[in-house]
Amino acid sequence: MSAGRQSSAGPDHDVLVIGAGFAGLYALHRLRTDGWRVRVLERGDGIGGTWFWNRYPGARCDVESMDYSYSFSPELEQDWQWTERYPAQPEILAYLQHVAERFDLLRDIELGTEVTAAEFDDHAALWRVTTAAGATVTARYVVMAGGNLSAPRDPDIPGLDTFAGRVLHTARWPHEEPDLAGARVGVIGTGSSGTQAVPVLAERAAHLTVFQRTANFSLPAHNQPLDPEVAAELKARYRDHREQVRYSRNGQLRAWGERSALEVTPEERDKEYEARWQVGGGGFIGAFRDLLADERANDTAADFVRGKIREIVHDPAVAERLVPSGFPIGAKRVTVDTGYYATYNRPGVELVDVRADPIEAIHPGGIRTASGDDHPLDVLVLATGFDAMTGAVLAIDVRGRDGLALGEKWAAGPRTYLGLLTAGFPNLFLITGPGSPSVLSNMVVSIEQHVDWVADLLGALGERGHDEVEARPDAEDRWVAHVNELSESTLFPRGNSWYLGANVPGKPRVFMPYVGGVGTYRRHCEDVAAQGYPGLTTRDPAAR
Ligand code: NAP
């Protein structure tokens, strides 16, 4: 389908895309194919988004490689060969580089270009976008493709800036791999990034101290080389597989248990958990239908994992510190690791429980805790996470109709229609925004769906001869209420997680992702389009 450009005069570009990760690259490809004049602005010095920045040792995706890849090109998916079950960061980055070259994307991407502000001009119905270098560009439409986990957070610990050694954040890892041989390394944070980095850092450093505030539930990845026969078999039915994935629960074809964990015997339950533990990966959490809905059901899965931790970790005192408590398994994102718990059996690896003995200060030589214990360090690794889901968008001073600031509109939490648009901000699209499945799904599947939906919408606008589109406030209110209602029926809000903004002091506590499932959500978006976009207002340029 070719929408064609709407006008040759007017804005510098038809569409400005912010971010050149999975979302920005596909947005450029799809919209340019549709005939729009598209420009991508990317703050990094390379493409890849998350996979450009998060190059810490052990960085690996927790979605299997053959699913964590674009489906828009049958030729691409046949040609590209993944080498491991779960792709490591360098391989994902190489894949994205290949995609960018194969589809000639680089010529429309400006690297090293950070967007600082975006202001909607009501009169001309265009966006004026400002960069950190002070340049201003205009576009009819803006696509926010900056990612859900791309605004890294440093911990608020006194003395961090006095540390004499090197400070490394997992999400800003240097391109030249630091030499850790002989170093005493400290890691703060045991979420997905910390859990993946710790086993590799333990191999490289002379001594590793892990500062853990909340013990997390971690599942084994059982990563392995991808069997070429398995890959070939999937490739033979890739189209059909992709279609099923698009209507699945989370963008991966997992066996979701249909039984309640409470209606089977303890032996049957443990057999199911053990089978899934042996398979590896996040599929464990789908063992029974009510694990994320019923606390008693959830306890059975949590207890199983607690038992595994006690089995793996030799020192019972260390094992007890690693055993999570106080929140349901899955309410904070489960991490998928390679040898995380067993790392604590290595000599030279120490676990400090900073909930029991809080970090008092970082000083030039290391970290001191409240008990007076001192931990001398040469290198400090911050695996302290992100201002998730809204951080990247709100880092830009976005102003919509009548100068309304997005930060002001979202002061009590993000409000969107379908996670794709927000009322008062015409012609602005959020890829995998809050209120869509986003981080609860295979991101690539959700990204492709959002980009295609936006591209189809722009095509439909063009056919109407309109060039302005905006979410209706009543449609947005209904969507926000629906998203909240769905999350309240689950255990998700019971974890102090970044899903809720709980990791950022002062951030409103709102459960941000849509929990109703990828397939249900996609059907809803398709219905909206089929009905002619009833939740949106569109405008004719002649009316301006
Ligand atoms: P995270 O899950 O937010 O974990 C941050 C960790 O730092 C938590 O353990 C947190 O403790 C701790 N922390 C933060 N501030 C602290 C402080 N002042 N003192 C002590 N500890 C502090 O961040 P992340 O590990 O970077 O992961 C974020 C998300 O990115 C993941 O959930 C996942 O969605 C994605 N990710 C995915 C992969 C993958 O695909 N395998 C890999 C990495 C990241 P509390 O829990 O107590 O707050």
Automatic annotation (TrEMBL):
<keyword id="KW-0503">Monooxygenase</keyword>
<protein>
    <submittedName>
        <fullName>NAD(P)/FAD-dependent oxidoreductase</fullName>
        <ecNumber>1.14.13.-</ecNumber>
    </submittedName>
</protein>
<comment type="similarity">
    <text>Belongs to the FAD-binding monooxygenase family.</text>
</comment>
<keyword id="KW-0285">Flavoprotein</keyword>
<dbReference type="InterPro" id="IPR036188">
    <property type="entry name" value="FAD/NAD-bd_sf"/>
</dbReference>
<dbReference type="InterPro" id="IPR050775">
    <property type="entry name" value="FAD-binding_Monooxygenases"/>
</dbReference>
<keyword id="KW-0560">Oxidoreductase</keyword>
<dbReference type="GO" id="GO:0016491">
    <property type="term" value="F:oxidoreductase activity"/>
</dbReference>
<keyword id="KW-0274">FAD</keyword>
<dbReference type="Pfam" id="PF13738">
    <property type="entry name" value="Pyr_redox_3"/>
</dbReference>
<keyword id="KW-0521">NADP</keyword>
